[in-house]
Design goal:
The protein has five helices and nine strands. With 236 residues, the protein is α+β, with helices and mostly antiparallel strands. The chain has two domains: 1-128, no CATH class; 135-236, no CATH class. Strands 1, 2, 3, 4, 5, 6, 7, 8 and 9 form a nine-stranded antiparallel β-sheet that branches. Strand 4 and strand 5 (126-133) form a beta hairpin.
Length: 236
């Protein structure tokens, strides 16, 4: 307990002196490099768990090194989900540092809440990363923009070279306010890594913002982004 108390005091002092710098140095998903080994992975992440193809995390595990406690996928890769360290956020809230809270809040990419995960091969080498927008606890007005994360991820890796196609239509799906998006885009990077971005925004069959009696149903729509970067077989 004593080392943690010392750490907390240091963070308190940091926030009091310069809240804008409170989260600088905290590792994020982009600090994980393809081809890295377990020993090269940054510390500071928390709540490691078996991943579910970008969905909600499953069983908690002790850390990345315990990846073999998870079930491998059809390619023999182990998915481990994780979260960013939330201690700076809690300290910022206690000190009512609004700017620092905004910077440190949750596990986000470009301001969108996400579930990040790393894909490891049997030797513990990073072969891929996944991100999926996280709808848990998000207000409908904020969740409605989750499809837009795909556009920001495209810009990160360069807007040119993407090959996009519409996903199959399912009977009964309808646009949200005249706008509907169901597409998957792929791109091959010069280093041989494959990128995939799937973006969706629509009403499923039977969904609408109001029912037949005029009652508001603000949550009944799909808005999400799924992203993956993965090394091609044989690449190093």
């Amino acid at each position: 307990m004593k080392p943690r108390a010392t750490s907390a005091c240091f963070i308190l002092a940091l926030f009091a002196a310069a809240p804008a710098f409170a989260c600088q140095g905290r590792p994020i998903v982009w600090d994980i490099q393809l081809g890295a080994s377990l020993k090269d992975l940054p510390g500071g992440f928390t709540d490691h768990a078996c991943g579910s193809n970008g969905g909600p995390p499953g069983r908690l595990i002790a850390g990345f090194a315990a990846f073999k406690e998870c079930k491998p996928d059809s390619e023999g890769l182990y998915e481990v989900a994780f979260r960013y360290d939330d201690e700076p956020e809690f300290v910022a809230r206690a000190l009512e540092q609004t700017r620092a809270v905004a910077m440190c809040e949750g596990t986000k990419v470009f301001g969108f809440p996400v579930v990040p995960s790393v894909l490891l091969d049997d030797e513990g080498i990073v072969r891929g990363l996944r991100l999926a927008t996280d709808p848990r606890g998000i207000e409908p007005a904020d969740r409605s923009n989750h499809w837009a994360l795909g556009n920001l991820l495209k810009r990160r890796y360069g807007e040119n070279g993407w090959v996009c196609e519409d996903l199959p239509e399912i009977p009964g799906e309808t646009p949200v306010a005249r706008f509907k998006l169901k597409e998957v885009c792929t791109k091959l990077l010069l280093d041989g890594a494959n990128l995939t971005i799937q973006s969706e925004y629509y009403h499923r069959a039977g969904q609408s913002f109001t029912d037949e009696f005029g009652n508001v149903q603000p949550n009944l729509f799909v808005s999400q982004t799924w992203f993956e970067i993965k090394q091609t077989p044989g690449s190093k």
